[in-house]
Specification:
Elements (H helix, E strand, L loop, with lengths): L1 H27 L1 E2 L2 E2 L11 E2 L18 E4 L5 E2 L2 E11 L2 E9 L4 H10 L4 E3 L2 E5 L3 E6 L8 E7 L2 H19 L2
Antiparallel strand pairs: 1-2, 3-4, 4-6, 5-6, 6-7, 7-11, 8-9, 9-10, 10-11
Length: 176
């Protein structure tokens, strides 16, 4: 019986500490003061993509972006300077935030300390995913200059699939 209680408490506290990191990711729902599903017009430091600044959007990962903020010397994540912040919008509503930093190794460590262990790894890309938001970081020494951190809202379709999975899981668990 003692073993059962010990194991149960361990699993509970492990899940609680793991869940707390994801609660923080959900509560931020974006990067710093930039929130997903808000109007881009709330953020006056961003430039709309146009003919005069289109070179700022040349990175292949940022061609879908509609707005850009060019970082300054004081904009940092830990010791890595933020080079750019790109926004992807639909009808002036922010659907994705992309942060490009210098190639400094502590950026991934900062995300891991803030959000916990990634939910998924795909080569050099690490992903933290909740039911509301997905945050990822990627970058390598050959193809992608700097690190790219992306914050995306989870689509309604993906939310529905997650809810259906959870319902089916609950139903299956009730059978046991």
């Amino acid at each position: 019986m003692k073993t059962f209680i010990t194991v149960t408490l361990f699993v509970f506290f492990t899940n609680l500490s793991f869940g707390q990191d994801y609660i923080f990711l959900d509560s931020k729902y974006g990067f710093r003061n930039i929130k997903l599903e808000t109007s881009v017009n709330n953020y006056l430091v961003f430039e709309l993509k146009n003919e005069s600044n289109k070179d700022l959007f040349k990175l292949s990962m940022n061609q879908k972006s509609t707005h850009v903020y060019k970082g300054n010397e004081n904009d940092k994540i830990n010791s890595a300077r933020i080079l750019f912040i790109y926004l992807i919008t639909e009808n002036d509503i922010i659907t994705e935030i992309r942060v490009v930093t210098e190639k400094v190794l502590n950026v991934y460590s900062t995300l891991k300390r803030a959000y916990g262990k990634p939910t998924d790894e795909q080569g050099t890309k690490f992903i933290w995913r909740t039911n509301k938001i997905e945050c990822s970081i990627e970058g390598d020494n050959t193809q992608i200059p700097g690190y790219h951190i992306s914050y995306k809202m989870i689509s309604k379709e993906r939310k529905q699939i997650s809810e259906l999975r959870e319902k089916l899981k609950t139903e299956a668990q009730s059978e046991l």
